[in-house]
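About this split. The held-out portion is used to measure sequence recovery: a designer receives only the structure tokens and must propose an amino acid at every position. Recovery is the fraction of positions where the proposal matches the reference. Here is one held-out target exactly as it appears in the evaluation file.
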């Protein structure tokens, strides 16, 4: 940004003016940023000078408001610590020592080596529910703890405290004030412990919750560590809920009986004698199925993905498969591979059919178990993920179990066989090809006919972006049917001359290159239309990646970055609609091949589709380049005139 001389806090980025102000040193650590900068939304200097004065006053007021807020929080915390510091430390210490007091009571618990994520979430929810029920009972009895256990001796005042003799009318007010202070300080301390990974203060709580269901959990397992973290988070939430009650607001929560019933139902059924629990309830705990010599599903998953990686499986595909399998594990738990049945597959299918896409981005759902999220989404009427996506998950698990049947004697059946949801539409209907009108709109856009600049590509001007990926990538997609990432990862040495024909070489020879399948490695002749538009000259001016201005996204793919621009491009030319994307170029290419008489098998070879059968095993399934050049020469997009883009000889 460029400072505007003579005007404090006024800067310019390009033609637009901005307000910029440094955060004062006394609040820099708590304010969350070192500098406040935002657009004044004007290109006029006089108007910017007027607006920056108003912005400066508002910013200084925000700084003062922040100072007052921080000061008030510090004062409240100091007062709370002075009031209840000793009882709180006893409360936290009590949680750490509970396990030593009830060893005998837990001797008959059924031992588990692991639990699913959804089961762990239920136990954390159980802890929060118990804390809120205890708090409710205490309030009903004048803030006197009625259940023995951690915290029962923590109250400084109760309704029958002898120190308040003669002041009975005020006893509850004293106790309420203490409850507020205790909830505030306990929450603060536990939040710090949660951030630091210190879970010792809730080990007793976690064991109590497990014992309530008649089970114990291996203290060396990853599941135990996860449970401690979840219970600690539940304790923090419980303190916030109690504080809400102190303000007259009732938090929403389920009863512990209901949660315990759901926990019992989630465990693998096996009749056992009922055991009394520490909460006084009678449950039928159900241990894991008898010990099997087969590896667990997670172990099989890792071997399956490792083998697939050796067959040129793209990292993105492997990551997606791992996520799908992990969702199944979250729902039903990690067991020996022979311990799964149709009921597990059916439960997964039912949950997926109710679960919305991008659950992790929804605040109301992301912290819920998979099953709870599906129920809540269905109750709220949220649209579920597409049938295609459901089938993709089910197909992934089918593939995993099919592989397991070939490699392990213990696996006799595939629980996911026949589970896929039937669709009325075919795969082609998932994406529309571009219409002739769409293509005319796109290739008459300012990017191709003249724009203001690379940055202002949608505004008409005199600049044609012949060195930009915005210009070339859609054209290459139109005349090759190649995938977006295949195009963006091309290097200068991937444009090769084979027997006098210039070709794209789709490969994965460099560290940042990858192909979807083995059949994706191929040669694609450069279409004559691209040569007329100047592709050879464009390549001659490059030395590394052809489209090196497109950076790799966090997922490791260049396509994830460019696809965002392409959506904006489609919108700018009024082509954007739900069933079109860059992938529509592949369908457009297929339609053109059919219309021009290109044989189906040659079309598949050009697009990197597997031919299937023995042709892929012998000779690599490759066509001679001369044959590909011959068929590519037939390709036309009828009615589309790109002569205005041609380079004048």
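Reference sequence for scoring:
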């Amino acid at each position: 940004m460029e400072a505007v001389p003579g005007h404090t806090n006024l800067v310019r980025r390009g033609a637009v003016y901005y307000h910029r102000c440094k955060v004062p040193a006394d609040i820099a650590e708590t304010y969350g940023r070192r500098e406040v900068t935002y657009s004044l939304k004007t290109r006029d200097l006089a108007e910017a000078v007027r607006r920056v004065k108003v912005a400066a006053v508002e910013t200084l007021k925000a700084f003062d408001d922040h100072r007052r807020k921080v000061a008030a929080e510090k004062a409240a915390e100091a007062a709370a610590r002075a009031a209840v510091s000793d009882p709180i430390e006893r409360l936290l210490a009590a949680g750490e020592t509970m396990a030593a007091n009830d060893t005998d009571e837990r001797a008959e618990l059924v031992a588990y080596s692991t639990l699913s994520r959804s089961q762990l979430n239920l136990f954390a929810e159980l802890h929060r529910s118990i804390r809120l029920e205890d708090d409710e009972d205490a309030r009903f009895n004048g803030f006197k703890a009625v259940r023995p256990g951690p915290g029962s001796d923590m109250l400084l005042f109760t309704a029958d405290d002898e120190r308040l003799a003669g002041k009975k009318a005020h006893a509850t007010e004293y106790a309420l004030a203490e409850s507020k202070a205790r909830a505030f300080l306990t929450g603060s301390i536990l939040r710090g412990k949660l951030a630091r990974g210190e879970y010792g203060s809730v080990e007793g709580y976690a064991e109590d919750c497990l014992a309530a269901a008649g089970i114990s959990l291996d203290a060396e397992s990853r599941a135990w560590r996860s449970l401690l973290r979840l219970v600690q988070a539940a304790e923090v939430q419980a303190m916030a809920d109690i504080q809400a009650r102190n303000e007259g607001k009732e938090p929403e929560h389920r009863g512990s009986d209901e949660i315990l019933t759901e926990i019992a139902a989630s465990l693998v059924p096996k009749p056992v004698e009922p055991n009394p629990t520490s909460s006084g309830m009678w449950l039928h705990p159900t241990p894991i199925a008898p010990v099997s010599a087969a590896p667990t599903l997670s172990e099989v998953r890792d071997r399956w993905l490792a083998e697939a990686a050796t067959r040129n499986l793209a990292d993105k595909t492997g990551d997606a498969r791992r996520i799908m399998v992990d969702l199944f594990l979250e729902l039903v738990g990690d067991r020996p591979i022979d311990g799964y049945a149709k009921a597990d597959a059916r439960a997964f299918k039912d949950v997926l059919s109710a679960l919305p896409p991008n659950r992790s981005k929804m605040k109301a759902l992301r912290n819920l178990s998979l099953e709870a999220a599906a129920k809540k989404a269905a109750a709220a009427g949220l649209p579920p993920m597409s049938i295609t996506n459901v089938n993709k998950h089910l197909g992934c698990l089918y593939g995993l179990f099919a592989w397991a049947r070939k490699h392990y004697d213990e696996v006799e059946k595939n629980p996911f066989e026949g589970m896929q949801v039937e669709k009325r539409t075919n795969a082609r209907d998932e994406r529309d090809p571009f219409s002739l009108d769409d293509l005319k709109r796109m290739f008459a856009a300012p990017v191709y006919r003249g724009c203001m600049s690379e940055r202002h590509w949608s505004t008409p001007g005199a600049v044609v972006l012949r060195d930009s990926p915005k210009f070339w990538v859609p054209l290459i997609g139109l005349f090759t049917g190649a995938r977006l990432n295949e195009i963006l990862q091309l290097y200068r040495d991937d444009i090769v001359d084979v027997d006098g024909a210039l070709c794209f070489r789709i490969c994965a020879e460099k560290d940042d290159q990858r192909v979807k399948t083995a059949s994706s490695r191929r040669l694609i002749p450069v279409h004559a239309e691209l040569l007329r538009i100047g592709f050879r000259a464009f390549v001659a001016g490059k030395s590394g990646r052809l489209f090196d201005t497109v950076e790799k996204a966090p997922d490791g793919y260049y396509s994830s970055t460019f696809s965002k621009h392409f959506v904006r491009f489609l919108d700018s030319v009024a082509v954007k609609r739900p069933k079109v994307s860059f992938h529509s170029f592949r369908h457009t290419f297929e339609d053109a091949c059919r219309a021009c008489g290109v044989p189906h098998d040659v079309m598949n070879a050009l697009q990197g589709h597997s031919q299937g059968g023995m042709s892929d095993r012998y000779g690599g399934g490759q066509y001679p380049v001369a044959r590909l050049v011959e068929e590519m020469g037939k390709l036309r997009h009828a009615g589309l005139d790109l002569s205005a883009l041609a380079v004048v000889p």
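Annotator remark: The CA atoms of residues 156 and 178 lie 7 Å apart.
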